[in-house]
Design a protein that fits this description.
The complex is a heterodimer of chains A (about 325) and B (about 375). Chain A has 14 helices and no strands. Chain A has about 325 residues and is an all-alpha fold. Classes of the chains: A mainly alpha (about 325), B alpha+beta (about 375).
C-alpha cells in the first residue's frame, strides 16, 4: 500500500512535471528554431509568422492525441466491431443488429430505456423547477437548496445502497426496517418486495436517479429564474395574474432555453444509466437497460465484443440528435467570434 | 384587506411546509444510513432506524426445555430456567404462548395455560412452568415474548468495515485513482482551451465542434476498443493490462472534452484588453498564458477540479473495466457493489461502507459548493 501511495505521488509529480516540461520545452524549442530576436527585420517577421503557425498545435497537441486515443478512435472502432463476430475476427454484416432486435432481453432494455427517458428528465426538471420557485420565496431557501442539492455528490452506488435500505422488505407481520414498507405497514398495507415487482420496479429505480438529479435541475433553473427581469413579474402581478399564471405564462416561457438544456443533459445521463441498475437488480425482474446490458455482454461468457459494440452504437444513435443540436447551438453563439 | 393578508399568510405557510417536505424527502434517506451505520448490528435488524433512540423492542419466539428437564417440587412438576439461556439478557415486557397473541400476558404474571398448567415469566427472562401432571413429549412449550433493549450506538461497524472488510484499503485505492486523474487533465486542458479561445489557426472551429460533440459521446462507445487496446498493449509488452496508469489516462481522456469546453468558455470571456496590452509589451503566447490566463482562471480550474474529483471518485463503470477486483486495486464504489452481492442483508456492513464512500464527496461538496455551482452553471448553460 505504501508503494501504491508513493507511486501515485510519483505519477502526480511526473505527470504535472512532464506537462510543464513539454509545454515549456516545446515553446522554447520553437523560439530557438525560428528566432524572432537578434535576427534581421524580415527574417524576424517571417519567423514570427512561422511560430504563429506552429504554436497553436503545440498547445492543443497533447489534448488532441489523448482525445483521439480515448474517444475518437474508439467511436470508429466500436462501429467497426459492431459488424464483426464476438472475437472481432470475421465480418458478420448486420447479424449483431438482427440478433439485437430479436433478443427478448434487448427489447426489454429498449422498452425500459424509453420509460426511463420519458419519466426521469421530466420529473427532474419539473421538481427542480418547483423547488427553485418555492425556495426563492423563503428565508431559509439557500439551506433548503443545499440539502436538496446534496445527493448530486453521492455516487450512484452509494445512492443505490441508500435506497435499497429504504426498499428493504421483511415478511408480513415482521418489524419492517425499510422505511417504505414500514410506512405501508403502519397504514395497514401489505409490505412489498419493491425491486422485483414486475414493471413497477423500474420506477423504484428511477426514483434514485430523480433523487440525485433534481438538485442539478434546481440549481440551473434557479439561476435562470433569477435572470427574469423583476419588472416583468411586477407587471404581471399588477395585471392581476395569480401565482399559477405567473409561473406558467411568465416564468416558464422566459427560461425555456434553460429548461431544454437541463432536459437534454439529464436525457444523456439517463441513456448511460448503468450503476443503479447493476447494483439494484443487475437487470433481473425485467429491469434491464441498454448500458447495463452492454456491460454484461462485454464480459458474458468471456465477452462478446460484437454484440457489446452493437448495443453501444444503439445508445450512440440515441445521443446523436442532441449532439447535433448542441454543436449547432454552439456554432450559432460563437459564429461571430 | 384582512382577507388578503390572511391568504398570503396561508400561502406563505404552505410554501414553508412544501419546502420542508421536499427537504425531508431529499435528506431522510441519507440520514437513514448515517444513523444505521452507528447502531448496534443486532438493533439494526430489530427495529427501524427511525426508532433508534427508543428502546428497540421485538417479538421473539423461543421454546422452553423439553419434559426431560422437569423436576418435582411440592407435589408439582416444574420446569425452570431462563429463556435467554446463557446468552445476552434483554428486557421482557410481555409474553404469550400463541403466535396469534404473542404478548398476551405482562411480564411477572402467571399465565394459565389450562389443565392447571401455569407459566410465570419475569422481565429478566426467568420462567417457571408448573403442572400438576408430569410433562411429556420431546418438544418443550413454545413461547413468544416481546423483548426490548436500550438504544445502543457504537462505532464498531466502522472499525469492522475499515479494517476487516477491506473498505479502508479501497479508500486508499480510490484516492490513488482520483488524485492523479484530477490533476493531470487540468494543465493539458488549460493549454488547449487557451489556444482554442485566443489563438487563430486553421481548423479551430472544427476542433471546437468536435470537442462539443465529444461532450455527449457515451462512455460505452470507448469501453470495448480501449479494453482491447489495453489487453493488446499489456500482452505486447508483457505487463498487466489493468493498472493504475491505465485508469489515470482513461479518466484523463474522458474528462478532457468537458475540461476544454468549460475552460475555453471561461478563458474566451477574459477581457481582450489585458491580452492585447501584454502582447504589445512583447509577451509571447506562452508568457501570456502562464502569467495572465492561468492566475485569472483559478475559479474555473477549481470548478473543473471539483467536478473531475467527484466524477472519478463516484465512478464505477471505468473502474470495473480498467481495474482489477483484487484488494490492491478495487476502488470504493466497486467494493461497495461487491459487498451488496456478498453481504446482501448485513445492513450494518452496507450502511457503514456506503457512508464511508460518500463522506469524501460530501466534505468536498460542502466546503467547495460555491465553485461547484459555478462550474455547473458554466458547463451546462451554453455560454460563449
Amino acid at each position: 500500500m505504501a508503494a501504491q501511495i508513493f507511486s501515485a505521488i510519483f505519477v502526480i509529480i511526473v505527470g504535472v512535471g512532464g506537462c510543464v516540461a513539454y509545454f515549456w520545452g516545446a515553446n522554447k524549442l520553437l523560439d530557438v528554431i525560428f528566432p524572432s530576436r537578434g535576427v534581421s527585420g524580415t527574417a524576424a517577421v517571417d519567423n514570427l509568422r512561422r511560430q504563429g503557425l506552429v504554436r497553436p498545435w503545440l498547445f492543443v497537441g497533447p489534448a488532441m492525441i489523448i482525445l483521439t486515443i480515448y474517444l475518437i478512435y474508439p467511436v470508429v472502432e466500436t462501429l467497426r466491431l459492431s459488424f464483426l463476430d464476438r472475437g472481432g475476427a470475421s465480418f458478420v454484416g448486420l447479424a449483431n443488429y438482427e440478433w439485437a432486435f430479436g433478443d427478448r432481453e434487448f427489447r426489454n432494455s429498449i422498452l425500459n430505456n424509453i420509460v426511463w427517458l420519458a419519466v426521469v428528465p421530466a420529473a427532474c426538471t419539473f421538481l427542480g423547477l418547483i423547488i427553485a420557485v418555492l425556495t426563492d420565496k423563503i428565508w431559509w431557501g439557500t439551506i433548503a437548496k443545499s440539502l436538496i442539492f446534496l445527493p448530486l455528490a453521492i455516487s450512484f452506488v452509494g445512492a443505490s445502497v441508500i435506497w435499497k435500505f429504504i426498499y428493504e422488505y421483511r415478511g408480513e407481520g415482521q418489524v419492517q426496517i425499510g422505511l417504505l414498507n414500514a410506512i405501508i405497514q403502519y397504514f395497514g398495507g401489505q409490505p412489498q418486495v419493491w425491486i422485483s415487482l414486475p414493471f413497477w420496479n423500474n420506477f423504484f429505480l428511477m426514483v434514485i436517479l430523480i433523487w440525485i438529479q433534481t438538485g442539478f435541475a434546481m440549481v440551473i433553473l434557479s439561476s435562470a429564474l433569477r435572470g427574469i427581469p423583476e419588472e416583468t413579474l411586477e407587471a404581471a402581478v399588477i395585471d392581476g395574474a395569480n401565482p399559477f399564471q405567473i409561473f406558467w405564462k411568465i416564468m416558464v416561457p422566459q427560461i425555456w432555453g434553460t429548461i431544454a438544456v437541463v432536459w437534454t443533459t439529464i436525457t444523456i445521463l439517463v441513456l448511460k444509466v448503468f450503476d443503479i441498475v447493476l447494483t439494484m437488480t443487475n437487470g433481473q425482474w425485467n429491469s434491464q437497460v441498454l448500458a447495463n446490458l452492454m456491460f454484461d455482454w462485454m464480459f458474458r461468457g468471456g465477452g462478446d465484443f460484437g454484440r457489446g459494440a452493437t448495443i453501444a452504437i444503439i445508445i450512440m444513435i440515441a445521443v446523436i440528435p442532441i449532439m447535433v443540436w448542441n454543436i449547432r447551438q454552439a456554432n450559432k453563439e460563437t459564429g461571430g467570434h | 384587506m384582512t382577507a388578503k393578508t390572511g391568504k398570503s399568510f396561508a400561502s406563505r405557510f404552505g410554501v414553508h411546509i412544501a419546502v420542508l417536505v421536499f427537504v425531508a424527502i431529499w435528506t431522510v434517506p441519507t440520514l437513514g444510513i448515517l444513523v444505521s451505520s452507528l447502531r448496534d448490528k443486532d438493533q439494526i435488524i430489530a427495529s427501524g432506524w427511525w426508532n433508534s433512540f427508543a428502546s428497540s423492542s421485538q417479538t421473539e419466539a423461543g421454546r422452553l426445555p423439553a419434559a426431560s428437564a422437569q423436576a418435582q417440587k411440592d407435589g408439582k412438576f416444574v420446569i425452570e430456567g431462563n429463556i435467554f439461556g446463557d446468552g445476552a439478557k434483554r428486557n421482557i415486557s410481555a409474553f404469550g404462548v400463541k403466535s396469534s397473541a404473542p404478548t398476551q400476558y405482562a411480564a411477572g404474571t402467571a399465565a394459565d395455560l389450562g389443565d392447571g398448567v401455569s407459566l410465570l415469566m419475569n422481565a429478566d427472562g426467568s420462567f417457571v412452568l408448573s403442572s400438576p401432571k408430569a410433562f411429556e413429549g420431546e418438544r418443550g412449550q413454545r413461547v413468544y415474548f416481546a423483548s426490548s433493549a436500550p438504544p445502543k450506538f457504537t462505532t464498531d461497524n466502522y472499525q469492522t468495515v475499515l479494517f476487516s472488510e477491506g473498505i479502508g484499503r479501497s479508500f486508499m485505492n480510490s484516492l490513488t485513482v482520483t488524485i492523479p486523474s484530477t490533476v493531470i487533465p487540468i494543465l493539458i486542458a488549460a493549454f488547449a482551451a487557451y489556444a482554442l479561445a485566443w489563438m487563430r489557426f486553421p481548423g479551430r472551429a472544427l476542433l471546437i465542434a468536435v470537442i462539443i460533440g465529444l461532450l455527449v459521446v457515451p462512455l460505452q462507445m470507448s469501453l470495448i476498443p480501449l479494453l482491447k487496446l489495453y489487453n493488446g498493449v499489456g500482452s505486447f509488452f508483457g505487463v498487466p493490462s489493468k493498472t493504475y496508469l491505465g485508469i489515470w489516462l482513461a479518466h484523463t481522456g474522458f474528462g478532457l472534452p468537458f475540461a476544454i469546453y468549460l475552460l475555453r468558455s471561461y478563458i474566451a470571456g477574459l477581457p481582450r484588453e489585458i491580452m492585447e496590452s501584454a502582447r504589445i509589451d512583447g509577451a509571447s503566447d506562452f508568457e501570456i498564458f502562464v502569467k495572465i490566463v492561468l492566475p485569472l482562471s483559478f475559479p474555473v480550474l477549481a470548478s473543473f477540479a471539483i467536478f473531475q474529483f467527484l466524477w472519478v471518485w463516484n465512478d464505477l463503470l471505468v473502474a470495473m473495466v480498467f481495474l482489477g477486483t483484487e484488494a490492491d486495486q478495487i476502488v470504493l464504489t466497486a467494493k461497495l457493489n461487491a459487498l451488496l452481492g456478498s453481504r446482501g442483508g448485513d445492513w450494518e456492513i452496507l450502511t457503514t461502507s456506503a457512508f464511508v464512500t460518500i463522506i469524501v464527496p460530501l466534505i468536498v461538496f460542502f466546503s467547495l459548493q460555491r465553485y461547484f455551482v459555478r462550474g455547473l452553471l458554466a458547463g451546462s448553460v451554453k455560454g460563449g
